[in-house]
Backbone:
């Protein structure tokens, strides 16, 4: 695991799109995700799990939008976990620490300490 956005709320589901997940650019930066990066999206409501790619959403908007066929498996209001993975050597993995963020599930904004 390279990055994880733990428990964020779906704000949109757009069936008529070629496919992907749109994520607020603030969340992407905080979780070290880049546009077009492959991610797994896990739906806590129904157990669905999809593999797709990231599209930048408007910074500060809180948007989490499942596009294309994924819109049939995720509803607005569902809480999801978004995970990215990376390749590395065994030695690199021993010292690697993934970037994990825990946004506010009501606003999808980053929590400050």
Residues:
């Amino acid at each position: 695991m390279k990055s994880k956005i733990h428990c964020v709320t779906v704000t949109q589901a757009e069936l008529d799109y070629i496919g992907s997940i749109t994520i607020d650019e603030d969340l992407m930066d905080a979780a070290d995700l880049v546009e077009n990066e492959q991610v797994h999206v896990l739906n806590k409501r129904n157990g669905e799990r999809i593999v797709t790619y990231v599209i930048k959403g408007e910074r500060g908007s809180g948007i989490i939008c499942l596009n294309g066929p994924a819109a049939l498996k995720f509803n607005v209001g569902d809480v999801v976990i978004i995970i990215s993975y990376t390749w590395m050597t065994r030695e690199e993995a021993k010292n690697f620490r993934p970037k994990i963020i825990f946004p506010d599930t009501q606003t999808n904004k980053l929590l400050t300490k």
The first strand starts at residue 3 and ends at 9. The chain has a mean pLDDT of 96. The helical segments are 25-31, 90-95.
